[in-house]
Amino acid sequence: MQAAEIDEQFPVVDIDSSALEAARMLAEDSLPGIVVVTADRQLYAVLPASQVVRFIVPSYVQDDPLLAGVLAESMADGAAEKLGGKTLRELLPQRQLTPPAVNADDTIIEVAAMMERLRSPLIAVMQQGRLHGVITASRLLAMALKCRLTEQAWTAVVTGLKTERPSSLSTWQFLEQPPDQRRSTAWHLGAG
Amino acid sequence: MQAAEIDEQFPVVDIDSSALEAARMLAEDSLPGIVVVTADRQLYAVLPASQVVRFIVPSYVQDDPLLAGVLAESMADGAAEKLGGKTLRELLPQRQLTPPAVNADDTIIEVAAMMERLRSPLIAVMQQGRLHGVITASRLLAMALKCRLTEQAWTAVVTGLKTERPSSLSTWQFLEQPPDQRRSTAWHLGAG
Fold first, then answer.
1. What is the arrangement of strands in the sheet containing B122-127, beginning at the earlier edge strand?
2. Confidence grade of residue A93 (pLDDT, cut at 50, 70, 90)
3. Domain containing A155: what range?
4. Which residues have a Cβ under 8 Å from the Cβ of B71 and sit 6 or more positions away?
């Protein structure tokens, strides 16, 4: 399974567009991050949501995290003002970082390894220097699990595993359980 | 605005539950990460999606990322097999790390600063030693922007800004634009 086979469309934002707009898009669509491109649609940056949050943290707090604790609530509440009118270019580091990107023919493991190493929930997939698509962590996991299911189902057909070993707790059987059984150990804790 | 005012319910998984189940939940619901608790519902870990992906990366690739490139595709495709039957406890580091968490009365800026510093797309909110809720990066940005809107609207009422300075491109006006205008600089690039 190659990167270009599982990547997806993903909204991109221009480096000279409003940072407020980018933050709003991320918030409204619950995106795992944003992909920033130049005017000629070259990939410029891939920002995890946690780093977009950086836009609303005053620089003196970034330099000294302990200051966050002594900021008055009213000051904290006005933090989004920092974004007003600023473009992404103004807020991103001057020195361009290499965005997390893989080649179209890289394997799912190469994508996973980069994702994990860079702690990036999304990876750009490049083909001949152009952005082909994006792979998110949830997409990657979904495809890895789906692939496993297919493989197991195929194995079951060939070896008769399904009928011969009905009581073994295999991955394959787990995946066949109805969702409510599968999630028996997941629950919600209340929020205020 | 305090952490406990903006946190939300979030699915939690037991440390002794199946890692496959946790990965599947993340994939199906496109969650930014998972919250792991002990049998007595104490917070154990907060894992960003990018670190859940780690579960399907063989340890020898984690140790030497270059190996990812030489793994045959068929080997890469079988990676999810690694999860079969394993619990989260077996896959998480033996040494318990301090989960990214804030106190219920911490401000939005303290949450943002921690999120950015730890590159974590979700932060647990604790009240008297118990998990009160979770704040995701998109939730934080949404609340920061909403808060700003309220503040701006209030200012507009008081100062007559809205009618007196209709042509100035303020944050407040930006927020009043219809969504299709707001997103004029965002578009999609095709995926294969």
1. B101-103, B122-127, B130-136
2. confident
3. 148-192
4. A107, A109, A110, B61
For residue B31, the chain A residue with the least C-alpha distance is A138
Residue spans of beta strands (DSSP E) within chain A: 10-14, 33-37, 43-48, 101-103, 122-127, 130-136, 186-189
Scanning A162-191 for CB atoms below 8 A from B yields 169-171, 174, 182-183, 185-191
In this predicted structure, which of A13-17, A35-39, A107-111 has the lowest mean pLDDT? Answer: A107-111
Does position B68 have pLDDT exceeding 80, yes or no? no
Q: Tell me which residues of chain A, numbers 38 to 57, contact chain B at a CB-CB cutoff of 8 Å.
A: 41, 48-54, 56-57
Residues A110 and A184 in one domain: no
pLDDT of residue A57: 76
- My answer on whether B55 and B108 are in the same domain is yes
A138/B27 touch (CB, cutoff 8 Å), yes or no: yes
**Contact assignment for A109 to B79 by CB distance below 8 Å:** yes
Residues B180 and B135 in one domain: no
Task: Kindly report the CATH number assigned to the domain that includes residue A85.
Answer: 3.10.580.10
Answer yes or no: do A114 and A164 share one domain: no
The answer, for A158 touching chain B at a CB cutoff of 8 Å, is no
Angstrom distance (rounded) from CA B101 to CA B133: 10
